[in-house]
Amino acid sequence: MTERVEGHGGALALAALRAHGVREMFTLSGGHVFPLYDAAHTSGFPLYDVRHEQSAVFAAEAVAKLQRRPGLAVLTAGPGVTNGISGLTSAFFNASPVLVLGGRAPQFRWGSGSLQEMDHLPLVAPVTKHAETVFTADDIPRAVSAALTTALTPHRGPVFLDFPLEAIFSVGDADLPAPTPVAPVEPDPDEVTKAARLIAAAARPVIIAGSDVYAGDAVAALREAAEALQVPVFTNGMGRGALPPEHPLAFAKARRVALGDADVVVVVGTPLDFRLSFGDFGDAAVVHVVDAPTQRAGHVQPAASPAGDLRLILSAFADHTGDRADHADWIERLRTAEDAARARDAAEMAADTDPIRPARVYGELRRALAPDAITIGDGGDFVSYAGRYLEPSQPGTWLDPGPYGCLGTGMGYAMGARVSHPDRQVCVLMGDGAAGFSLMDVESLVRQRLPVVIVVGNNGIWGLEKHPMRAMYGYDVAADLQPELRYDRVVEALGGAGETVAKAADLRPALGRAFDAGVPYLVNVLTDPADAYPRSSNLA
């Protein structure tokens, strides 16, 4: 039976949001969206506010990524929306189902120069799946419901609606659309069979699983396929932890050997972008498994590319009944390389040097982090080490900026993670450069009693820029920060706590105090500026 709802535009929007499982609102106060606040306040709908709009969108994205449901950010008109565009763009590249609701200057005065009057749609349309202005209160439930369905339909992504002042403040009534279940995208069975045959017959196959495996709830199907076909698995993004580190087919350290010698590389749920050498694996055949036809790579010609529900495709791989090659020798070879790399990493993570090496920070974090801890990377050089040394043991516990590479996600992601998982550890790994983007939002975390641990790798430079520029030109510019800056005192001034650590031996007790503090706590680790992460920039 259709439900009829009435009220001002904010109440109508909230009714549709609740129906689709949205459970919280992230925002920065603005008069254009007061009715949405009124609806939330009067009905007990949780509302969290921030100090910069990008943090509101990043918080909504963290909810969307961790909980695999829509996240909501509400932004006031004009600069409120433009301040959130980096967050929207990150959500677009990360396929995160985020809904941004924007205020908008009144339509009846359009062109007269109202406060913060601008047309947002041309700015947000390129980085959203759908962008629309809703001109009447009666149309708001329909528009919100349709936008959320679009956000959740593979390939998932952000959507945007804005409401002129008279629409959101007016009273209306309308039918509340029932949520439309998103039907699985059925893959082409011939393409699935073609891919399965290639994998099964390969002598040296490798699977690389990415964020869409988690977003599409395909973790169990991935394990089933890997075990049935006996294929080693590497992961990136939120695919990390899909196979626990102790699984006999889980690999992390032997990637160079694997991709250098594989004859079939199966990339599942992640693009063939700079993180994967743009899909160029030498003579290896590439199987690209995507959740929607739009995600097939246009710059390479894969040997097969099944598109559709990842659970259906991976389960079909597991059920493949054709001939299968024996991969035991290949797996043993990779395990030998993996074990050797682990031994090298163990020595680096135990390095008792001052200045502190970033690897030692992660050696101590491996001891401190619980298996279900939410780990957030916000940085360049320092966070690159996290990808190497930290190995999530559970899926859905790793958040990084993704392929767009936008700094400043840290405090917003931390807020969304703490709201999503109030009983888990939440740890933000932050470069000292990245700290400049969002650290003020520690105040938002303190004020709303959302404790997190922040570990800053403080080397006083933009590490991923300083060292490559010096190698290219013999000098560097615009790559230095204040050495040994006291970011912990910034957090203390905002109501949290923290300390600076300059000696490796002091790391473990400092992290213990941080996780026991019950408030936002920043461990400011003075790391060696000469210790740069050994990788190319992959800018091309």
UniProtKB/TrEMBL annotation:
Belongs to the TPP enzyme family. Its cofactor is thiamine diphosphate. Residues 9-121 form the Thiamine pyrophosphate enzyme N-terminal TPP-binding domain. Pfam families: TPP_enzyme_C, TPP_enzyme_M, TPP_enzyme_N. It comes from the Bacteria. This is Acetolactate synthase. Residues 192-316 form the Thiamine pyrophosphate enzyme central domain. The keyword Signal does not apply. One of its GO terms (cellular component) is acetolactate synthase complex. One of its GO terms (molecular function) is thiamine pyrophosphate binding. Keywords: Thiamine pyrophosphate. Residues 378-525 form the Thiamine pyrophosphate enzyme TPP-binding domain. The keyword Protease does not apply. One of its GO terms (biological process) is isoleucine biosynthetic process.
